[in-house]
Design brief:
The longest helix is centred in the last third of the chain and has 30 residues. By secondary structure, the protein is mostly helical. The N and C termini lie far apart (45 Å). The protein has 8 helices and 2 strands. The chain has one domain. A two-stranded antiparallel ribbon has the order 1-2. The chain is globular. 68% of the residues lie in helices and 2% in strands.
């Protein structure tokens, strides 16, 4: 399995692509998990994951994120709550849960949905702040995120863009570079200007949106590999977690870009 920019999909147990579910049955040894740990291969009683499993679990996870996000956004816009406690709390809780899911390698629906709820609170609080200054920007960001998702899915399914080892390396490298620049800019008090309402900020946001969009291609490819490898159905929750994590980043960056454009 190729490496990926999304840590949620790294070092998944492998089991002979093309052999389907039986590929696991032919491997009595434990499969390596994240961080050097080991995971028990699925037994004959476990149903293999299907695309329907991934679609349904992803829809549920996104639904939870949207529900908590909308409730929080309306609470912020109505003045019922201060946006910063839920924004900071949701961000920290989401971060902790994501690290648990990734490093413990847990396809646990309770953890995934808790992560989705925390991210929804975080996104809702941030969205409420942006919406107060730029009316209509939230709906535009949601539609923009959905459009990017559908576009990348079509490009992937039609084979217009193929996920190759070279493309994977480029996307991972670009993602690391972008995050590194954001950290440097933060530590330097915004000296780089890449997070400002300026031409540089707009260009940087467009680049980051492009990186996040291509990360979706990697997510789709990893999900396909999980299905072909015959991963147990419960791992659809793990695939949903990885996809939603990328969508959260994509939405935030689109929201930021739209605020720049409306600010002009």
């Amino acid at each position: 399995m190729r490496s990926t920019s999304n840590p949620a999909f790294r070092n998944l147990p492998t089991g002979g692509f093309g052999g389907g579910y039986a590929g696991f049955q032919n491997q009595p040894q434990a499969a390596p998990g994240y961080g050097g740990g080991y995971m028990t291969p699925p037994t004959a009683t476990e149903r293999p994951m299907t695309i329907d499993d991934v679609v349904s679990k992803t829809a549920i996870t996104i639904g939870v994120t949207l529900l908590t996000g909308v409730i929080t956004a309306f609470a912020v816009l109505s003045g019922a709550i201060n946006p910063w406690p839920p924004a900071i709390g949701g961000m920290l809780i989401g971060l902790v849960l994501s690290l648990i899911i990734i490093f413990k390698h847990l396809p646990n629906p309770a953890l995934v949905l808790s992560y989705a709820a925390a991210e929804g609170v975080f996104l809702g609080a941030i969205t409420g702040v942006f919406e107060a200054y730029f009316p209509g920007v939230a709906l535009q960001a949601i539609l923009g995120t959905g459009l990017v998702f559908v576009t990348m899915l079509v490009l992937y399914k039609t084979g217009a863009v193929r996920v190759t080892p070279r493309l994977t390396k480029w996307v991972i490298g670009a993602g690391i570079a972008a995050v590194g620049m954001m950290l440097i800019n933060l530590l330097a008090g915004g000296a780089l200007g890449i997070r400002d309402d300026s031409n540089i900020g707009i260009i940087f946001s467009i680049i980051v949106i492009g990186i996040a969009a291509f990360m979706l291609l990697l997510n789709f490819d990893e999900t396909d590999q999980m299905i072909r490898a015959g991963m147990p159905a419960k791992w659809a929750w793990y695939a949903a977690f990885g996809l939603v994590a990328t969508l959260v980043w994509l939405y935030l960056e689109i929201l930021r870009l739209l605020s720049y454009l409306q600010g002009d």
